[in-house]
Predict the structure.
Amino acid sequence: MKPSLPQGTRDFGPETVRKRQYILDTIRSVFELYGFQPLETPAFENLETLMGKYGEEGDKLIFKILNNGLERPEKHAAANEDFKKVLEGKNVKGLTERALKYDLTIPFARYVAMNHGQITFPFKRYQIQPVWRADRPQRGRYREFTQCDADVVGSQSLFNEIELIHIYLEVFKKLKINVTVCLNNRKVLAGLATLCGGLEKMTIITIAIDKLDKIGIDKVNEELRQRGNDEASISIINQYLDIAQQEVSNAEILKQLKTMFKDTTIGLEGIAELEYLTTNFETVKVDVTLARGLNYYTGTILEVKPLGIQMGSIGGGGRYDDLTGLFGVPNIPGVGISFGVDRIYDVMDEKALFPNELNQSVKIMLVNFGEAFEKRNMEVLKALRAENISCELFPDAIKFDKQLKYANKRNMPFIAMIGEEELNEDCISVKNFNSGEQKKMNLTEMISLLKG
Amino acid sequence: MKPSLPQGTRDFGPETVRKRQYILDTIRSVFELYGFQPLETPAFENLETLMGKYGEEGDKLIFKILNNGLERPEKHAAANEDFKKVLEGKNVKGLTERALKYDLTIPFARYVAMNHGQITFPFKRYQIQPVWRADRPQRGRYREFTQCDADVVGSQSLFNEIELIHIYLEVFKKLKINVTVCLNNRKVLAGLATLCGGLEKMTIITIAIDKLDKIGIDKVNEELRQRGNDEASISIINQYLDIAQQEVSNAEILKQLKTMFKDTTIGLEGIAELEYLTTNFETVKVDVTLARGLNYYTGTILEVKPLGIQMGSIGGGGRYDDLTGLFGVPNIPGVGISFGVDRIYDVMDEKALFPNELNQSVKIMLVNFGEAFEKRNMEVLKALRAENISCELFPDAIKFDKQLKYANKRNMPFIAMIGEEELNEDCISVKNFNSGEQKKMNLTEMISLLKG
C-alpha cells in the first residue's frame, strides 16, 4: 500500500512547525500581554451547534462525522439494523450527529452561552486551534487550517477596539511585516443605505461596494441598477465612493461624510466611532468601502493588509451585538479579531522574515567513536543539558563522514569529538561549521563557547 | 436552543489551558534539549491508512468522516443520486473515505514511509497533538485527548533507549512528580516462550502474565492451563514470576534469569540489553512481568508509574523493528515513548504541583475612572507593555466595586488608579492585593515594583 494524504491537508515537518510556532508564539505572547486568556474547545461539536450558522453554502462545507456502526451499508445494508433504521427515518440521529468545527467563533459563542453564569465579564479570550472546511482545495486554501482569534465579550466600550488594533500593530511589528489596518463601521454603511431608501438595502449595497476593487465603478453601478436601485440612490452611492477614494487624511474623509450624513443618526454615530478610533492611531486608514461578509457584524469592522506584496488580508474582525443570542443567551455584545496564520506564514516565507535560529534544531552533535568513549560522551551531554544547551550524541558508531553529513543536514552549528587523544588529554575537540575552525578545549570553555 | 458538548469531549477554560500548556511546554523543552524535532500531521487521514492497524476492536473505535453530500438519506434517499450509488455498491468510496487519527504512531509511520527519501536518518521526531477514539466515555477516558510522543527511527542503537529514559526522568523531575521507570524486553518474554515450547506461545503467555497484578498467580495459572500450557511450562513460568517478584536489585534478578535462560539465545540477548540499560540508571526498575499490549514491540518495553498515588501508568513505549513496513517501506527500526498528558494533569492537580503563577492571568489592572483619564491610562499601558508586563485597563467606567471584583476574580495581584489627584500630582496609586498595601508612586517606581 502506497500511503498518501487526504486532499487539502498537510504534514508540517520540523522546519515548518518551528516557523509556524514562531508566529503563534508571537501572537500568543501579545494576547497575554493585553490580558487575554486562552480557551480551547473540542475538535467536534454537536451537529446542531454548527448547522445553520454559516449560511446554506457553509452548511455544505462542514465535515460531518459518521455515527459509529454505519460504515459499510453497501456491503451489508440488509444485515445492518442500525443502518436500516436510518434509511427508514426511524433513527432520529440519522447518519451523523457530530461535526468538525468550521471556525472558532461559533464554538466560542456556544461556550459563553453554556458558561455565562460562571464567566467573569468582560471576558477577554483568545483561541488558537485548527478548523476544518470541505472547500475545494486550491493554492493557499486548505481543508485544515489554524485560526487565531481574540474577542472581548460583555463590553460595549470602544476602548476594546483600541486594544485590538494595538494588538494587530504590535504583532505585525514583532513579525516585521509592514501592514495597513483598514477601518470602517457598519453603521456608516447603514447610514448610506438609509440615504438610499432604507436599511433593508444595506446588504445589496454592501455586496456591490465590496466588489469595487475587482470590477470597477461601472460594473458596480450596473449591478446596483439591476438590483433595483433608482438613479438617485446610485448617485448618492457614487458620491460616497468618491469621498471614500480620495487620497486625503482620515479626518478629511470623515468631515466630508459628516456633511453628507447630516440627516441620518446611525450614519453620524458610525462616523463618530471612526473619529474616536482614528484619533488614537496614526497608521490606521479609514476605508468606508470595506464591507466584510459576515452578517453578524454591527459596528466597527477592520481588516489588515500587508504592504508591498500581492496578497489578500492577513487579519480581520469586527463588533457584533448578539452572538450568543443564537444559543438562547441574548445581550452579550462583543468585538473580535482574527489572524490569518497561513497567509502570514506565506508573507514571512516570501520576504524571508523568519529568524535564522529557527533553522537550527540542535546546537551541537557529539561524534560517536564507539563504546570506549560512551561514558565520557554521556558526561558531556549531561553537562551541556544542565546548561540548557541542546545536544545529541550520534547513536551509532558509524563512519565519521556519515555522522558529519547528518550534523550538516540538521544545520547544527557545532560538532564535538572525543577520541583516544581527547580522552588522554582530558579535552574535547570542537568544530565550528560556520568558521570552519576546530579547537581543543575543556568542558567549561566549550560551554561558554556554546552559550556565547 | 440550549447548547451542549458532545459526549466525551471537554472545553478547556483559561486556567486549565495554562496548566496543560505548562505540562506540554515542559515536555517540549526537554524533547528539544535532546535534539528531537517537531512534526505535525493532519487531524484526519485516508481511511485505509488507519483501518486494520489497531485490531478489530480498534477499527470500530475510529471516528469516520461522512463523505460530503450524503448527510440526509432518511429525508431524500430517493432523490440523492450519490447516496443511491453508495447503497448499490457503485460508489467505491462508500459513505466514508477519511477518518480522525486514532494515535500519533501510525500517522508518523505513514509520514516516514511517504518521505523516507528526503528524511535524514536517524530521524528523531516528537509530536504533540490530539487524537480521537469512539470509546465509551468514563472517568479519565475521553473521546478527544492529547498524545505526546517522541520516537527515533533509523537506528538500532540502544543508546536511543538511554536518551528516552533520560527524557522521562528529566521531564518528571521538572514537573516534580516522583516516578518509577519500569523496564522489560520483548526478547526476554520471547525467551520464556521458547522455554515453554516455542515462540508461538508468546502472546498467550504475555497476556496471562500481564494480568498477574489484577488476578493473582492462581488465576494466571488457571488461564495458562486453559490455553493449553502443560504443567512443565506452567512450572517454568512460575519460576520466572518468582524471580521477577523478588525484592532484590536489578542485577540480582538479571543474574538469576541468565541462569534460567542459559539455553535460549533470544532470552540472553534480552537480558544483555536490560543489563546495558540498567547499569546506566540507578532509579530504573527491571520488571520482567511488564508486557505492554502493542504487538509491534520487538525489544525494549518500558512504562512510567507515579509513586504515592493510585493511578495507572503515565507513560510508556518500546522498540519496534518495522513500523513503516505497513506502508511498503521495510527495515526502518525505531524506538519511542509517549506521555499520558491527561493522567499527568490529574496527578499534578491532586498533588497541587502546578506553579502558583499559572493562576495569575494578568499582573495589573488600571481602574477606569472615565474619559478624562483615558489618555494617561493609555500612556501607562504602553509603558508597562514595553517592559513586557501584562496589563489592562477596565474597558468601561463603571462602579469602582465592580471593577475591583473583576480584578479579584481574575487573580490579578495589583490594581492601579489614576484619578484627579494622581493626575495633578503626576503619580499613580498602586494597590497590592496580597499585602493590602496601597501607595502613590511614579511610573518608573511602579515598573520596578511590578518587575520585582
User: Anything to note?
Assistant: The domain at 360-451 of chain B is CATH 3.40.50.800 (Rossmann fold). Chain B has 18 helices and 16 strands. Chain B touches chain A through 101 residues (CB under 8 Å).
